[in-house]
Structure formats: structure tokens, C-alpha cells
């Protein structure tokens, strides 16, 4: 677990180690089958897989890149040393293109397992069944890592989470977790998922009211709450930018007064949340059919 946090070279060596990823997946599958999702070894395994999934799209070997990608993104190789937790996602475009999806292998081996639907379902199962905060956070974080890019692999993972594996109810429950880092990671995952235009209707129907409900009435002076608030606003922006129905759903959930209050907080420390709320308000105003409802 410590070594998996050692940066890109460490991740590369561990991904290439024959049998390592397969063994971690095998252990977690056994723990879930034996109804033992809360043991420390499972937590360690998930944290390792979480770290090995960091920047996976960028760091894939060329042989995988050629078989999976229509074209590689031109991305700088700047990297920050990750811990098991913390800010992981590279800043990416908020919109994801509908690209031909990679074909999934029936029996994945090694690094192929990291984005396979089997492991995605394992993460979702741990999110639902584990009561261990670190295990929940690492499972959410792994999915966040896998959906952070703009190529076909992140899009395929997002579609699996939302449409094939019915993962939104479990993620929605994590929005109400008492542990703030779990909540923050759940919101960050939803922000990634919400960039996919073909998934936005499903996401809005399932979680938009919950996102509005956890928005603060005004932003308290806490860095993590400020980050969560900003991330919620950008998720709502993605869901409502080109969808008048979703904007109306936000309105009916009484989200507008909260967003206005957050946008008017001009404290420097809270500017991230205030700016995100302002961007959301500006976008909501573009739905001219809702102007009368807004004014009321």
C-alpha cells in the first residue's frame, strides 16, 4: 500500500508485476463472498488498486494504448505523488465525447483488470456493503480515477457504473456519509460521471435532489466543505447546462436560494465555491423558458 503511493515509476513496476493485481482482486472477491468486507486486508487491497488506477489512462503501456484508443490525448506528463487519499483527479474537460468503446475481455489479466467491469462491480459492492470509511473512500476514489479522463476507457467505465451495474444508488448513499472525505470523493466521482451527456438524464433523476439537499445554506469556513460545495455546483452545472428539464428539477428541489447565497459570499477563502455557484447561476439563466419561474 505504501509502495503504491510512490509515484509513476512505482505504479508502473507494480502494474507490470505478474499476478499482483490478479491476487488483490482475488482476495477482495473472497472477502465479499465470505461477507467480510470490513477487514483490514481488504482495505489495504482496495487502497493499492485505488493508487494503481491513478492516471491509468495517461500511463498505459503503448501496446494497450494502440488497441484501446482511437487516438491518444496529448497530455503533459506532470505528476504529483499520490497518497492513498487526497486530490487525485487531473483537471479535465467537463464534457466527454461519445467515442467507440473498447471491447472488454472475458478473462482479464493484470493491468486489464483495473478497468474491467468485474472490478467496477467489486468497488460498487464494497461501497454498499463495507462500513469502513477508508474502504468506502478508496472504492469511490478508484472509480473517480478511472472516470477522470476523456478517452473511451473512462467513458466505458462511467457507462458501466451508471447503466450496467446500477451504481448510482450506492454512490447516492455516500453523499450523506458523516465522514467528509467520503462525501467529497463521492461528489468528485459524480462530477466525472456527469460530464457524459448520454448519462446525464439518469444521473439527474437519481441524485440531483440529493446533491441539492447537501448544499449548505451558506458556505462554512472549512476547506473541505468549500471543495465539496464547489464540486456539487460544477456537477449541477454539467447536468443542467444543456438540459432545461434538469434545470427545472433543480428549481423544484429548492436549489436556487442556496446557490444564490453561496455565490454572494465574496470571502477570498471561499472564492472557489462562490465562483462555482456563480458559473452555475449564469448557466441556469441561459434557459430562457425558466426566467419567469426563476423570478418567482
UniProtKB/TrEMBL annotation:
The keyword Repeat applies. Keywords: Cell adhesion, Cell junction, Repeat. The gene is Pkp2. It is found in: Cell junction. InterPro entries: ARM-like, ARM-type_fold, Armadillo, Plakophilin/d_Catenin. Signal peptide: none annotated. This is PKP2 protein. The keyword Magnesium does not apply. Transmembrane segments: none annotated.
Amino acid at each position: 500500500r505504501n509502495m503504491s503511493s510512490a509515484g509513476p515509476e512505482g505504479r508502473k513496476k507494480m502494474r507490470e508485476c505478474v499476478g499482483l493485481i490478479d491476487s488483490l482482486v482475488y482476495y477482495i472477491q473472497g472477502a465479499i463472498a465470505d461477507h467480510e468486507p470490513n477487514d483490514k486486508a481488504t482495505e489495504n487491497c482496495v487502497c493499492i488498486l485505488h493508487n494503481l488506477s491513478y492516471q491509468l489512462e495517461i500511463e498505459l503501456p503503448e501496446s494497450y494504448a494502440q488497441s484501446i484508443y482511437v487516438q491518444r490525448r496529448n497530455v503533459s506528463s506532470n505528476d504529483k505523488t499520490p497518497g492513498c487519499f487526497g486530490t487525485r483527479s487531473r483537471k479535465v474537460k467537463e464534457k466527454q465525447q461519445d467515442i467507440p468503446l473498447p471491447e472488454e475481455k472475458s478473462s482479464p489479466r493484470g493491468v486489464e483488470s483495473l478497468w474491467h467491469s468485474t472490478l467496477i462491480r467489486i468497488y460498487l459492492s464494497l461501497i454498499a456493503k463495507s462500513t469502513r470509511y477508508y474502504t468506502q473512500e478508496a472504492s469511490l476514489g478508484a472509480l473517480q480515477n478511472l472516470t477522470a479522463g476523456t478517452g473511451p476507457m473512462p467513458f466505458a467505465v462511467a457507462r458501466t457504473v451508471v447503466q450496467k451495474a446500477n451504481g448510482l444508488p450506492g454512490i447516492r448513499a455516500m453523499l450523506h456519509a458523516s465522514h467528509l472525505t467520503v462525501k467529497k470523493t463521492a461528489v468528485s466521482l459524480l462530477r466525472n460521471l456527469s460530464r457524459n451527456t448520454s448519462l446525464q438524464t439518469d444521473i439527474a433523476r437519481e441524485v440531483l435532489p440529493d446533491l441539492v439537499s447537501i448544499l449548505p445554506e451558506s458556505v462554512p469556513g472549512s476547506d473541505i466543505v468549500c471543495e465539496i460545495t464547489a464540486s456539487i455546483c460544477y456537477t449541477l452545472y454539467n447536468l443542467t447546462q444543456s438540459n432545461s428539464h434538469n434545470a427545472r428539477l433543480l428549481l423544484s428541489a429548492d436549489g436556487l436560494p442556496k446557490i444564490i447565497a453561496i455565490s454572494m459570499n465574496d470571502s477570498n477563502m471561499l472564492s472557489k465555491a462562490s465562483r462555482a455557484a456563480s458559473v452555475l447561476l449564469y448557466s441556469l439563466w441561459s434557459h430562457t423558458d425558466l426566467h419567469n419561474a426563476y423570478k418567482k
